[in-house]
């Protein structure tokens, strides 16, 4: 039984990363209608920035903060410099544009940081702490705590503040929101900024577990999408809960069945979800008006 | 009727030029490799264009379908010693069924679930290819030979001619297909989904059809790939390849036939060209960045794609006549 709980704790750590990335995805998707396929690769690029800053002798906490600021700036610039000028382009075109960003990020990373993988340290070193037979690394606890507090903060802002209201209204119906005087342009700038920061944060958390390389985010990126499908694209909290289910399942499948096939099994699982509950757990029935 | 209106003749002319070019210039082996890879990717992009250009769906898994086609073909030719054309046909049919099943699941919903489902395929397939080592040779890759047809074994140039021949045949087939009632339904869907639906076009059915057909092209391209390069490994068929196809389709011109070739040509010649430029040639990843920027620019400012550029320039500078309502240009 201890092993089972051990896996759940490990799952919570992966879930944190999937959840952050999935929340970034759904924030942008709900308010602007664009699925940001570049989320993972932008995160990868930012992880390179963090690792490069660290390698050039900057303390890693400062490196992380600087990276998050840069990530926010990149997200803002993408919205302000490119996406905002693409008003007349349909969602499909915008999605294709995000795939263009994928290629740009994949090209820029080796251009700036070379072809060799870089190293980024754990946020806290230290021996595992044992609680009731389950041993947890301090870093794992920190990742889970940071994720939960960021999510708590974001959901508080979404539900309670005027800004959150603006985002929720825009997500509900952008035309009506505009008519009601909601600054939808500001909203989409804000969600691109926050979304990119969340993606970068997920990448920074993954970095110590693997190495910082061009392919580091492929798995996380896919699983954040899977989480969003499982939780449904209809709500902000759905994908996050989806991420926790996927993260825990991922570790349990990896431990009890096969770690090699965990991603493949989850993929088949999500195809099953698409067959039986296509709108996801928290999905609403989709009614299209012409 | 001038040749400008006879698409089939244009495609054949293109084919003849493409075949004669390396023969007349007695091109180096590397040039033939470049031209052949343009031909192979053009076939896959042609199919990708049917999907993206007409049904408005994105696939990130076409590289994976190319891989399936390649391994199927290599397996049947090298292990079971079946004739090449039979293996080629199987390399088209098997991805078709895989695509059909995946489409059946992912296309039922409005939205972009196909892109997500195929993204998953692209990530998962590498592991699958690596694990089924009896079939694919695992991480170390699989080898096969140049094809043999009726006792005649091809050499490099002959395979290139075969690739271009198949490309031209597929261009003409695609053109005729788009003029058929099914093709018309796809064109209607491209113009307006709602109007098409109102005319009795089942969006699900035709999107599924477009997706499965496009995977067939990918399978054929994969088979030709492995019989030209005679080697393949699991890393090849990932998301990068699918993004290349997407880039080629967008840059060349969505929903066009010639655009597939022009787009792939742009994509493949760009890095080769950059290498000849001093300083720029030494920068890693520059062609990637430029391709990405091109995607964004073409989507934003010139969605008609490179293929329509000469016509538009001609119209702008030489034509005094007001342009009439344009017909659907393939």
Explain this structure.
The complex is a heterodimer of chains A (290) and B (330). Chain A is mostly helical and 290 residues long. Chain A has one domain: ABC transporter involved in vitamin B12 uptake, BtuC, CATH 1.10.3470. Helices cover 71% and strands 2% of the residues of chain A. Chain A contains eleven helices and two strands, in the order ααααββααααααα. Chain A has helices spanning 2-32, 39-55, 60-82, 91-113, 138-160, 162-172, 174-179, 184-206, 218-231, 237-256, 262-276; strands at residues 129-131, 134-136. Chain A has a two-stranded antiparallel sheet with strand order 1-2. In chain A, strand 1 (129-131) and strand 2 (134-136) form a beta hairpin. The longest helix of chain A has 31 residues, at 2-32. The longest helix of chain B has 27 residues, at 29-55. The chains are: A mainly alpha (290), B mainly alpha (330). At the A-B interface, helix 4, helix 9 and helix 11 of A face helix 4, helix 5, helix 11 and helix 13 of B.
List the SSEs and their pairings.
The complex is a heterodimer of chains A (290) and B (330).
Chain A: H1 2-32, H2 39-55, H3 60-82, H4 91-113, E1 129-131, E2 134-136, H5 138-160, H6 162-172, H7 174-179, H8 184-206, H9 218-231, H10 237-256, H11 262-276
Antiparallel strand pairs in A: 1-2
Chain B: H1 7-24, H2 29-55, H3 62-79, H4 84-106, H5 113-131, H6 133-136, E1 142-143, E2 148-149, E3 152-153, H7 156-179, H8 181-191, H9 193-198, H10 203-229, E4 231-232, H11 239-252, H12 258-276, H13 286-301, H14 309-318
Antiparallel strand pairs in B: 1-4, 2-3
């Amino acid at each position: 039984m201890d092993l089972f709980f051990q896996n759940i704790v490990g799952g919570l750590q992966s879930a944190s990363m999937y959840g952050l990335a999935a929340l970034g995805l759904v924030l942008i998707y709900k308010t602007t209608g664009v699925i940001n396929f570049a989320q993972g690769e932008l995160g990868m690029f930012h992880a390179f920035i963090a690792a490069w800053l660290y390698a050039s002798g900057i303390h890693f906490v400062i490196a992380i903060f600087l990276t998050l600021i840069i990530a926010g700036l990149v997200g803002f610039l993408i919205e302000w410099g490119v996406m905002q000028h693409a008003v007349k382009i349909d969602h499909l075109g915008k999605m294709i544009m995000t795939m263009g960003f994928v290629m740009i990020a994949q090209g820029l990373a080796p251009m700036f940081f070379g072809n060799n993988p870089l190293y980024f340290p754990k946020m806290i070193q230290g021996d595992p702490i044992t609680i009731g037979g389950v041993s947890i690394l301090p870093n794992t606890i920190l990742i889970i705590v940071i994720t939960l507090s960021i999510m708590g903060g974001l959901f508080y802002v979404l539900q309670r503040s005027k800004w959150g209201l603006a985002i929720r209204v825009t997500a509900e119906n952008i035309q009506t929101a505009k008519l009601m005087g909601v600054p939808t342009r500001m909203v989409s700038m804000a969600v691109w900024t926050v979304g990119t920061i969340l993606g970068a944060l997920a990448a920074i958390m993954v970095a110590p577990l693997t190495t910082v390389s061009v392919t580091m985010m492929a798995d996380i990126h896919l699983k954040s999408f899977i989480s969003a499908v499982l939780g449904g694209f209809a709500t902000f909290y759905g994908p996050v809960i989806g991420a926790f289910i996927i993260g825990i399942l991922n570790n349990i499948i990896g431990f009890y069945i096969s770690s090699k096939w965990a991603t493949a099994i989850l993929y088949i699982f999500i195809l099953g979800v698409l067959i039986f509950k296509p709108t996801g757990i928290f999905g609403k029935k989709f009614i299209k008006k012409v | 009727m001038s040749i400008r209106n006879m698409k089939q003749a244009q495609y054949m002319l293109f084919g003849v030029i493409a075949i004669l070019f390396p023969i007349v210039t007695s091109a180096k082996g590397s040039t033939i490799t470049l031209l052949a890879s343009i031909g192979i990717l053009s076939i896959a992009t042609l199919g990708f264009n049917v999907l993206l250009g007409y049904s408005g769906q994105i696939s990130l898994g076409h590289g994976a379908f190319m891989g399936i086609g390649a391994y199927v073909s290599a397996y049947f030719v090298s292990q079971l010693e079946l004739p090449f054309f039979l293996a080629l046909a199987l390399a088209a049919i098997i991805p078709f069924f895989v695509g059909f099943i995946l489409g059946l699941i992912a296309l039922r919903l409005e939205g972009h679930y196909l892109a997500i489902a195929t993204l998953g395929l692209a990530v998962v397939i590498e592991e699958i290819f690596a694990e089924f080592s009896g079939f694919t040779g695992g991480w170390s890759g699989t080898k096969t030979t140049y094809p043999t047809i009726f006792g005649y074994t091809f050499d490099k140039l002959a395979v290139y001619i075969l690739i271009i021949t198949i490309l031209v045949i597929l261009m003409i087939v695609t053109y005729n297909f788009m003029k058929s009632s099914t093709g018309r339904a796809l064109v209607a869907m491209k113009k307006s989904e709602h109007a098409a639906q109102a005319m009795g076009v089942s969006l699900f059915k035709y999107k599924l059809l477009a997706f499965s057909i496009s995977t067939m092209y990918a399978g054929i391209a994969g088979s030709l790939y492995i019989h030209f390069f005679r080697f393949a490994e699991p890393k090849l068929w990932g998301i990068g390849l699918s993004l290349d196809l997407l880039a080629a389709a967008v840059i060349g011109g969505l929903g066009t036939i010639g655009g597939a070739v022009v787009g792939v040509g742009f994509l493949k010649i760009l890095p080769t060209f950059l290498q000849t430029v001093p300083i720029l040639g030494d920068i890693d990843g520059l062609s990637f960045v430029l391709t990405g920027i091109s995607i964004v620019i073409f989507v934003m400012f010139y969605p008609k794609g490179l293929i329509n550029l000469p016509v538009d320039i001609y119209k702008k500078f030489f034509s005094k006549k007001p342009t009439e309502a344009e017909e659907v240009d393939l």
